[in-house]
Amino acid sequence: MTRRASVCLIARTSPADWKITAFSTWSLSKLAEHLIKQKVTTAISQETLRRILREGKVSWKTTTTWKASNDPEFIAKMHRVLTPYDSPPANGRVICVDEFGPLNLMPRKGKTWGPVRHPRRLRATYNRYAGVMRMLAALDVATGKLYYRIRPRRRWREFLGLLKALRARWPGEKLYLVLDNFSPHKHAKVLAWAADNDVQLVFLPTYGSWLNWIEAEFAALRYFALNGTDHRSHEEQNAAITAYVRWRNARAGPKTNFAPASPIRSWTEYPAKVA
């Protein structure tokens, strides 16, 4: 193994792997000191170390979390979701539904262009006297358009109201609704109404929200409409969301090719670890 490869390999380890308990992660200076102690090199500057890591495709990353599904029918449920994505049913329309929020009135960190070393400033203190709102939204896979309503609560009543609005929008078509296992989605009155109105509920596997196509749209909404803002009223914030959704829908197109190269498509059982 070359010296550069050794540097990159050690950088990807944890200090705990070397019985070091004084700190939990490497800084460039601590890593350089450790490399010298391990006799990988006799001397190395932080800039040289930074360049070696960059050339070795080792970068500074934020730690992320993951939650494994405990659903024994994960694979079967996953394919029940992927099938209408890949081959939309001829007799109906596939709709992804979910809730987004809470919509607080608060300064939100974001990114914007500005002068070097002069970041845009937002207030650090705020209150929640105006309460919070919730968005109930639906993504039409056939057109890629978003439909939504903002309400103060997200009970089964509000959810059923959204479903009735979707039913009225596409009369005569069977609706296939992809949704998670949130309790209002499984309320007895919701299930009964769906059965009586040609609406099929396609539930995600437990801890499988990433299979809901609308999640990607929520990420974009948060990034483009909310991050970097500091709205002082719900009316102001709701207007910003409305403007973004109108802009987005004017440019929307059919949703196709859900994770075409993802290893999930070859799973025959749920893996022990999902990164």
Automatic annotation (TrEMBL):
InterPro entries: RNaseH-like_sf, RNaseH_sf, Tc1-like_DDE_dom, Transpos_IS630-like. It comes from the Bacteria. Residues 93-234 form the Tc1-like transposase DDE domain. This is IS630 family transposase. It comes from Streptomyces phaeochromogenes.
